[in-house]
Amino acid sequence: MTAKPIRIGTRGSKLALWQANWVKSKLEGLYPDLHIELEVIKTSGDKILDVPLAKVGGKGLFVKEIEQALVDGQIDIAVHSMKDMPGDLPESLCIGVVPEREVPYDILISQGDKPIKALPKGARVGTSSLRRASQLLYMRPDIEIFPLRGNLDTRIKKLTSENLDAIILAGAGVKRLNLEHVISEYIDPDIILPAVGQGALCIEVRKADPPVHELIAPLDHAETNRIVKSERAFLKRLEGGCQVPMAAFGRIDADTLTLAGMVAETDGSIMHHQTISGPVAQAEAIGHDLAGRLIDRGADQIIARLSEEEHS
């Protein structure tokens, strides 16, 4: 084990710092003599707050600068939300471990604590996620979607400041910041399928850094890691740019992994959705196979057209 300080790179939001400090405290519990420092790195996603993410490069905006610091040796470990991770990583980096997943579902915070199915006709719902918006519009085409950016506290405040009927957020962040009292409903994945990796943390490291691999190994949660591998294999095969609404969500029961996936039009007019199961040991193959089945049903046409629009 290295005697020098271990530097953890993180974004500076309250949630990102909670996540990085959680990893720090777990490592300190394992290695009381280890000195760990946090390095806050501002990402493009933190700087661009007035434009929907899909229009400026998507979720990779929250990790690129931190990954560059890892490549350059400025930090030793990067802590991200797994759902912010693109399908492809820089060549010299890898996902080291995946700790146990927090609640993976999206949540609704609404005026009057109404559940999603009881929102009024023409309800104004805040979200900047194409994945959430497309699935919500598929179920409720009458709903009006409003862009919602900023950190968790800012987005929750916009429920009243922007006169919205409801907002949709990831349940994991709300739970981690002890804000469960504001939740009106945990949204059933049959209504809105969670993002790939939602609720899980990603601890990213350099491939050629065995001491750090050994250091973080006890933080891995085997079941979560398998599920995330399956979901990310789905994402990797379908990678169609940030303008494509897609989701995958896996669960394990005994030795069987069940994976649900979807690709949709941004307006919710078409949705391709399928669920398959297989042995846990074939997690990545299941993700790859599920993506192939959606491609066969026409998901590739949505991806091609939306990707072309993104680059036009």
The largest sheet has its strands arranged as 2-1-3-10-4
CATH architecture of the largest domain: 3-Layer(aba) Sandwich
Question: Approximately what portion of the residues adopt beta-strand conformation?
Answer: 15-25%
- The tally of beta strands, per DSSP, is 13
Give the distance, in angstroms, between the N- and C-terminal Cα atoms. Answer: 50 Å
Oligomer: single chain
| Shape summary | globular
For the sheet with most strands, the description reads:
5 strands, mixed
Based on CA atoms alone, the radius of gyration comes out at: 19 Å
CATH topology group of the largest domain: D-Maltodextrin-Binding Protein, domain 2
Query: How helical, in percent, are the residues?
Result: 25-40%
**Count of separate structural domains:** 3
Mean pLDDT: 92
Per CATH, the superfamily of the largest domain is Periplasmic binding protein-like II
Please write the CATH class name of the largest domain.
Answer: Alpha Beta
Low-confidence stretches: none
Helix count equals: 10
Classify the secondary structure makeup into a structural class: alpha/beta
Order of helices and strands: EHEHHHEEEEHEHEHEEHHEEEH
Secondary-structure map with pairings?
Layout: E1 6-10, H1 14-30, E2 36-40, H2 44-47, H3 53-56, H4 64-71, E3 77-81, E4 93-97, E5 106-110, E6 124-126, H5 130-139, E7 144-146, H6 152-161, E8 166-170, H7 171-176, E9 185-186, E10 201-206, H8 210-216, H9 222-238, E11 246-253, E12 256-264, E13 271-279, H10 283-311
Helix pairs in contact: 9-10
